[in-house]
Amino acid sequence: MLESKAKLENLVIHDSLTGIYNRRHFETQFKESWEQLVDTQGSLTLMMIDVDYFKRYNDTYGHIQGDNALKEVASTLAASMKRVTDFTARYGGEEFIILSTDLTRQQALNHAEKICANVRSLNIQHEASSYGYLTISCGVAHINPNSTSSSGLLLQQADNALYNAKANGRNQAVMV
């Protein structure tokens, strides 16, 4: 009975395709991290990640290959997170999200750039991209949460940074 319950709990918090955490669990983790960091006065970095030209990838190679590419990207993102406090989740479709605590702004941007490089190093062919291989764009936001700051604003800032990364050529990390 306990084993069945553990399996069910695991299914509820993990994305069935990629095996990493899902958006629902991200939302819980984000809220808990925010509340903890308000108390401890630590920093929180939020990275929103989008696989560049993913619709074109699916149209060119098919959905099965698209699913395989998402699995590889998810695995690479998760492997890029070395600290126990780092958290990676599939946000939806070809979007992922990462939470990291206690980084400086520069460390956060450096880490996001390294993640982009790690995905590039997969060398997944993508003929429908101007780069010729699969890439990601990453929007980075950073804050020291306090009682007057807003987690929703941090999420919006990361989304805006992602938009800027995509608008300025993709295949890069941008921080607000």
What is shown here, in short?
The chain is α+β, with helices and mostly antiparallel strands and 176 residues long. The protein has a single domain (2-175), classed as Reverse transcriptase/Diguanylate cyclase domain (Alpha-Beta Plaits), CATH 3.30.70.270. The protein contains six helices and seven strands, in the order ααβααββαβββαβ.
The unreliable regions are: none
CATH fold field value? Alpha-Beta Plaits
Category from helices, strands and their pairing: alpha+beta
How far the N terminus sits from the C terminus, by CA atoms, comes to 48 Å
Strand order of the largest sheet: 2-3-1-6-7
Alpha-carbon Rg, integer: 16 Å
H/E order of the elements?
HHEHHEEHEEEHE
Kindly describe this structure.
With 176 residues, the protein is of the alpha+beta class. The protein has a single domain (2-175), classed as Alpha-Beta Plaits. The protein is 51% helix and 20% strand. The chain has six helices and seven strands, in the order H-H-E-H-H-E-E-H-E-E-E-H-E. A five-stranded mixed beta sheet has the order 2-3-1-6-7, with helices on both faces. Helix 3 crosses helix 4 and helix 4 packs antiparallel against helix 5 (105-120). The chain is globular, with a radius of gyration of 16 Å. 37% of the residues are buried. The model has no long low-confidence stretch (mean pLDDT 94).
